[in-house]
Amino acid sequence: MGRSVWGCWQGVFSTAVLYGSLALFTSILHNVFLLYYVETFVSVYKIDKVSFWVGETVFLIWNSLNDPLFGWLSDRAFLSSPQTGSQITNPEVVLKRLKALSTNGPLFALSFLAFWVAWARPGLQFLLCLCLYDGFLTMVDLHHSALLADLAVSATDRTRLNFHCSVFSALGSFSVFLSYSFWDKEDFYSFRFFCVTLATFSILGFFVVSRLLQHRFQKEVRTRQDEALTLKELSVGHAPLTQPEKPVTIGQYIKQLSRHRNFMWFVSMNLVQVFHCHFNNNFFPLFLEHLLSDNISASTGSILLGISYIAPHLNNLYFLTLCQRYGVYQVIRWLFMLKLGLSVVMALAGADHIYLLCIFIASNRVFTEGTCKLLKLVISDLVDEDFVVNRRQQAASALLFGMVALLTKPGQTFAPLIGTWLLCVYTGYDIFEREPVKDSLVSVPDIASGSGTPPLRLGCFYMLVFVPITCALLQLAAWSRFTLHGRKLQGIKTLRQGAQHGHLIDVKAI
Questions:
Q1: CA proximity to 150, closest of 255, 260, 15
Q2: Core-most of 35, 163, 471, 499, by most CB within 10 Å?
Q3: CA-CA distance, 6 to 9, in Å (whole number)?
Q4: Taking the chain, what is the end-to-end CA distance rounded to the nearest angstrom?
């Protein structure tokens, strides 16, 4: 009876829908976490400043190291060259990742709940909650991202998988809007109930969807195992005298990556992208306050904020259709050029065109976040190239995603540091001391607009337009050196499919 129920549900949903729905169960929690965890500990639990910064510092270190650590623990068995008689099939890899998601997904939801109930001293609870939450989030994100490279090889199938992720991530963003109805730091009961409801939904979702996907691939694994047993009995497909190769060490793997030119150029571009995304997140409220608050209503400001959360997911649906037609490389290149063009137009127009400023502030964040959401497709292509060039036994998807995160996450730290430094240099405004610094670069009215523009407003405008211009120029320079596109990419995919012939998943259901 139980198997027939699972089989019935399996027939209703495609692999792409089930894979995409996993993004929903993550995003409904993570968006709420990002919005409220700092205010909860500062305003509700009254954490002291030293404990807060100690917690954030430890979290920064842990956040950078856990991606490659978990990726290595997950994929180290796949790094050696193919060993005769010990092939790991793709369905087995997928099942391994699904089992990890079925375990870590519910634990991620439980770690989310640990923020909203005071169970220890604020400083200790802040540190433990951040590290636990980020650890389980990393495990979920790594395995979910790695499945994109393991479930499909063709660009069309991967785009379809990413398309469904964007749809469900957009649905998950609505938890932010619902949270406003429950948030009250004076009476925390309603918000706690709301978080428990979200976590319960997420736990059930991870359990049910991962089980559905596991049942879908277990049959194929059994078939492959029966075939392998038959071949073994016939002494076909293995050579007993072949010397098995030694597994690749972490040092050897890093050396291989350092020689992977496309990986290095991609990381260079992505480091700037991560910086720009977090720069927009960190200074979006500041730009609204000092550039628009005197000219737009509070409701218009909240609409702009809402658009900046949901529009990137919806916009990505259109970008993915363009990717199917023109390729991911070309679409990302166009987005960099669009960022550069819009920023130059805004710089020439000046800070006094309010409606143009509203459009630019919103579109700048939307297009930047949209670009970030396409980069998983590029990393999946790098997984294919790494598999072919280094003759892997199996694609080390989670490990490569983890190494990308390790090398690009410093952009999260650079964004507020460089942003506050630029603000202080241009305007003399120190967000920590709130007092002007004498030797600021901008201390005169805006001559171009002919109005007495306050230095702080003008400094914010310069940051708003010149940071995207600088980022776009650096990214276009790095992206022009990236060669994994067009015929070369197609050749890599053909080689991977040929090398894993008989071991890849039948993706017709995707």
A1: 15
A2: 471
A3: 5
A4: 26
pLDDT at residue 7, as a whole number? 52
Of 402, 386, 346, 404, nearest to 496 (Cα)?
386
pTM as predicted: 0.79
Largest CA distance in the chain: 88
Element (H, E) at 217: helix 189-233
Q: For residue 378, what are its two tokens?
A: 């590029």
Write out pLDDT tens, residues 261-297. Answer: 999 999 999 999 999 988 887 777 777 777 776 666 6
CA distance 225 to 118: 50
d(CA 459, CA 4): 64
The two tokens of residue 341 are: 């063009």
Helices (H) and strands (E) in the chain, counts: 17, 0
CA distance linking residue 465 with residue 350, whole number of Å: 10
* Lowest mean pLDDT segment, chosen from 226-235, 378-387, 452-461: 226-235
Which runs of consecutive H residues, i.e. helices, occur in 234-353? 250-258, 261-287, 298-326, 328-349
- Euclidean distance between CA atoms 361 and 359, whole angstroms: 6
Rg (CA), the chain: 25
